[in-house]
Amino acid sequence: MFNRDTSELVLKEEEKFEQMLFEGTHDKVNYQQLGEIEYRDLTWDYIEYILSKIDLEKVAGRSVVVDPGNGSAAGVLKHGLEQAGVNTVAFNDYPDPTFPNRPPSPHPGNLGKLGRLAKNTNAIGIATDGDGDRAIFADEKGNVLWGDKSGAILAADAVKRYKTKKVVVTLNSSSVVKWAVKSAGGIPIESGIGPPAIISKMKDSGAPFGIEESGKNIWRDVFLYGDALLSTLRMLEILERTGSSLSKLASQLPTYYMEKIAIDCPMDLKEKVLERSFRKWQETRDETEYVEIISIDGKKIVYEDSWLLLRSSGTEPVFRVFAEAKSKERVTTLIDEGRTLVKEVLNELT
């Protein structure tokens, strides 16, 4: 569900509607009082609106391989790019709610075909998810980039594009995004995870752009939600303006190593697990060991060269542990530490 300004309802607002529906407390009226209901296909209205926000001269003639993954963007993403003058090859390009060809989540591990086709055609690749709000890119050499890397490129562009130099970054995103924003002269602002948290922080700070590491990129002056077509066209604008390739832009970013795990956790124990896990961590640490603690969404422990995030899932019965560092060894150490803390607490509570 969405607000009039195109932003997604926050969880508490959604829960109000669910409560009304399940408890039957909403007002009921006779069908004759409903008035007229109009059903419209807004596909072309949507495409025309997106194209009105793009410098079409910069994207026309470019080549893109598209994998909508049989989701809601099937057909639409290809047509939108073609209307912009982009040479487009698509596969998995018909909607099918059973997702017969790959999982709906566009993870680099299931995008091998996209990478191969991008390499074979010397084009960039774009994959999206079931509802079309995520954009995962493959460069012209066939390398699939996670949302942090492509997001870093888009974020640096946003700093140059807008007078307001602020960029909202979810706290589980790679440090490479902050690095890119700062290198471009911008100010990174951390938010909680998910579009409602990103958009709330964008509104509060006045930031024109926000990203989530999963490939969701939000431009406030277009609409307050991620969109694969918009992300693709913005990336093509950048490539044309810089005269660079996607692989070259990605290679200029520093390397960080990230790992994330999910641990089964009953929904009713999540808050206690977070509280006790963090307390256990504090009991064995000196304040000089870390730089800061960020408590926006879970507990993020920031060190000079790395960070550890303890956070419960908002939608699934799992507890998540994220870690990032400049070395694989350090990431492994932090993940093992987080896993041990959470499992010890779960054993105590169950």
List how many beta strands DSSP finds: 14
CATH superfamily of the largest domain: Alpha-D-Glucose-1,6-Bisphosphate, subunit A, domain 3
Biggest β-sheet strands, sense, barrel? 5 strands, mixed
Radius of gyration computed on alpha carbons: 22 Å
* Distinct helical segment count: 12
CATH architecture of the largest domain: 3-Layer(aba) Sandwich
Question: In sequence order, what are the helices and strands, one letter per element?
Answer: HHHEHEHEEEHEHEHEEHHEHEEEEH
Characterize the overall form: globular
Judged by helices, strands and strand pairing, the structural class is alpha/beta
- Strand proportion, as a percent range, falls in 15-25%
Distance between the termini: 36 Å
Q: What is the CATH T-level topology of the largest domain?
A: Alpha-D-Glucose-1,6-Bisphosphate, Chain A, domain 3
What is the CATH C-level name of the largest domain?
Alpha Beta
The order of strands across the largest sheet is: 2-1-3-4-5
Descriptors for this entry?
single chain, Alpha-D-Glucose-1,6-Bisphosphate, Chain A, domain 3, TATA-Binding Protein, five-stranded mixed beta sheet, five-stranded antiparallel beta sheet, 12 helices, 19% strand
